[in-house]
């Protein structure tokens, strides 16, 4: 009889997301942590939200997503107020420039006619000064409002990511689990759409209204002749747009790259959510995310500033060109320029082209951003099932006495129970092997002990639901069958469970020796500083498994769970590992989930999990089981 092949990993759906980018150097090290910690002072969201539970992922969204983003926007009120103050200055300059410009033709004609020879007419200086002040104020207004919108989104992203990490494993797992790519897209691209929408709204409410009111008072009849002259300025504008457009393209490329890095990072870390959780890595990941998010903020801010500059530069070109053309036509024709026509043109330009265009654009942007906003908040609205009670205990140390008492568990209502009245007592320092058919529920038992779901299990006479989650997971080191590694160096991966993010090289090397990984690590060109590639892609399955074991040993928890931790090792490596592990296991409580004989025989006791029921079997019954408990190839290699 054969012990069946291992099932696909429970997180298989999650892990099979297509890769995005190879992470660049800034993603390689965990060295960002120290810097991130400093930045964290400025990054902590100032707002907290009342949690809301959605009946299901597909339930209809609340009607006013803007109201949910309001606390984030309110946190940026200073920047917004400054932006709106600049808007008031810009509109004021424009309203003063219109009558001054209305007098300009007369002033210009007088100047060209020789009445003020050798001097720039005062009216020209006034208009130029007002136009420059308007352009500068409008530029600063837009830059500030972009900064506010982007900072809102930066905070929103951090909040969403923090909430995603706090989600139950069930949110990521199983058939209903949310895909990593979807989450990454919401937090990156769609958040960007939200920034566009917010900016449009901020830039429209006050500035456009002000401009419309101010210009309404200045309105005069339109001069068609002047409009035709104005059209001749268009080629100049095209040259300006082409040049600045090329610069914008380059800046945008950088901004896109930083956004792609963010997406790559998310696609890297979210498939490893199990490892993050069991290593209490949430805080570390929040800091790493913060670093990349801040880089994206900078590049995007450059892009938006350039986008703000372009219309101002184009408008300046337009007005300067217009003045030159008017002056030229007056000089050539020798006639007095129609002042009313010039005034009408500027008024029409101000009243109809700019604010109305802005209103239309703002509406479109908002409509584009609204679903994105909703989808981001959808990630954050939940109450985790697995959470600390207010009175949860912090245990400094545990002996490792584990009791499963009549535990029944099913993944979803209507599904058969994976554990059906399971009773198991593992005494401190004992090694117990769980065997059974593939899909029998062995990994589920380990997950229940780690409280990744909501079980009733007892550790050191405490119901694990009464123990702080972070504390519980510190006392249990878990090596999953998927050998999850992060992009980073070997040393960083082994020391991942360090709560402070430090790397103790002595402990790293010791853990690697026990895991029989020291030999191959030392043969790598950069030894412990070797980069493992995305998700450890530069290492073999067996090497990855040994690093995962070293990570668990580094954690030095009282309880060690090895879930098919040696399935990819060759016989020699497994024997060497067995020798070093045996000493380590003497003062630890160890739960071995395995199909391989060598590992199973390391246990003091063997229990069989089949059809949700657990029963103890003797080693002799196991060995003479004729394959009932394991495959003949493994039992008789
Ligand atoms: N997140 C999930 N949602 C729904 N069902 C799940 C989930 N994870 C596992 N299962 C199901 O629960 C059962 C037990 O899975 P588990 O991974 O515990 O088995 P196992 O004994 O460890 O298998 P193997 O030896 O192949 O690793 C399987 O039938 C599996 O399909």
UniProtKB/TrEMBL annotation:
Any one annotated GO CC term: plasma membrane
Q: Where in the cell is it found?
A: Cell membrane
Molecular function (GO) terms listed?
A: ABC-type transporter activity; ATP binding; ATP hydrolysis activity
Q: Does the keyword Transport apply?
A: yes
Domain ABC transmembrane type-1, first and last residues per copy: 124-368
Q: Pinpoint the ABC transporter domain residues.
A: 402-636
Lineage: superkingdom = Eukaryota
Key words of the record? ATP-binding, Cell membrane, Membrane, Nucleotide-binding, Transmembrane, Transmembrane helix, Transport
Q: What is its main location?
A: membrane
Q: What is the name attached to this protein's record? A: ABC transporter domain-containing protein
Source species = Brachypodium distachyon
């Amino acid at each position: 009889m054969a012990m069946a092949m291992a099932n696909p990993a429970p997180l298989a759906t999650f892990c099979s997301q297509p890769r995005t980018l190879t992470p660049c150097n800034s993603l390689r090290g965990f060295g960002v942590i120290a810097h991130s910690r400093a930045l964290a002072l400025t990054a902590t969201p100032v707002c907290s939200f009342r949690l809301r539970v959605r009946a299901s992922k597909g339930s209809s969204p609340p009607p006013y997503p803007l109201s949910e983003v309001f606390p984030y926007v309110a946190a940026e009120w200073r920047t917004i107020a400054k932006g709106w103050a600049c808007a008031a200055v810009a509109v004021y300059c424009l309203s003063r420039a219109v009558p001054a410009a209305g007098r300009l033709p007369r002033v210009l004609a007088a100047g060209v006619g020789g009445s003020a020879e050798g001097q720039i007419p005062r009216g020209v200086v006034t208009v130029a000064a007002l136009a420059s002040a308007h352009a500068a104020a409008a530029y600063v207004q837009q830059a500030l409002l972009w900064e506010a919108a982007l900072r809102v989104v930066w905070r929103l992203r951090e909040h969403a990511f923090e909430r995603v990490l706090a989600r139950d494993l069930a949110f990521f797992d199983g058939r209903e689990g949310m895909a990593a790519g979807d989450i990454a897209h919401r937090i990156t691209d769609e958040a960007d759409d939200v920034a566009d929408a917010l900016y449009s709204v901020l830039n429209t409410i006050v500035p456009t209204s002000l401009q419309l009111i101010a210009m309404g008072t200045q309105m005069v009849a339109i001069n068609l002749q002047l409009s035709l002259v104005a059209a001749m300025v268009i080629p100049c504008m095209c040259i300006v747009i082409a040049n600045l457009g090329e610069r914008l393209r380059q800046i945008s490329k950088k901004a896109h790259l930083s956004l792609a890095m963010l997406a790559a990072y998310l696609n890297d870390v979210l498939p490893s959510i199990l490892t993050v959780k069991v290593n209490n890595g949430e805080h570390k990941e929040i800091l790493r995310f913060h670093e990349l998010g801040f880089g994206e903020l900078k590049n995007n801010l450059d892009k938006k500033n350039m986008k703000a500059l372009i219309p101002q530069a184009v408008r300046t070109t337009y007005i300067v060109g217009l003045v030159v053309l008017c002056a030229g036509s007056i000089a050539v024709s020798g006639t007095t320029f129609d002042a009313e026509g010039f005034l009408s043109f500027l008024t029409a330009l101000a009243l109809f082209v700019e604010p109305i265009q802005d209103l239309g654009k703002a509406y479109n942007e908002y409509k584009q951003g609204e679903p994105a906003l909703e989808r981001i908040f959808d990630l954050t609205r939940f109450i985790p099932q697995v959470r600390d009670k207010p009175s949860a205990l912090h245990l400094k140390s545990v002996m490792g006495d584990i009791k499963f008492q009549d535990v029944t568990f099913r993944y979803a209502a209507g599904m058969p129970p994976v554990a059906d009245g399971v009773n198991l007592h593992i005494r401190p320092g004992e090694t117990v092997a769980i065997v059974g058919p593939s899909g029998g529920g062995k990994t589920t038992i380990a997950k229940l002990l780690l409280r990744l779901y909501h079980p009733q299990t007892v550790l050191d006479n405490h119901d694990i639901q009464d123990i702080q989650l972070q504390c519980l997971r510190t006392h249990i080191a878990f090596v999953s069958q998927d050998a999850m590694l992060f992009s980073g160096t070997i040393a960083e991966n082994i020391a991942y469970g360090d709560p402070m993010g430090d790397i103790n090289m002595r402990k790293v090397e010791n853990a690697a020796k026990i895991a029989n990984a020291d030999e191959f690590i030392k043969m790598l060109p950069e030894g412990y500083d070797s980069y493992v590639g995305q998700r450890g892609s530069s290492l073999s399955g067996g090497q990855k498994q040994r690093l995962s074991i070293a990570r668990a040993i580094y954690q030095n928890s009282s309880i060690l769970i090895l879930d098919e931790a040696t399935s990819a090792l060759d016989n020699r490596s497994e024997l060497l590992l067995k020798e070093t592990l045996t000493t380590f296991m003497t003062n630890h409580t160890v739960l071995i989930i395995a199909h391989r004989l060598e590992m199973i025989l390391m246990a003091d006791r063997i229990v069989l999990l089949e059809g949700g029921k657990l029963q103890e079997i003797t080693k002799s019954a196991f060995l003479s089981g004729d394959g009932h408990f394991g495959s003949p190839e493994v039992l008789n290699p």
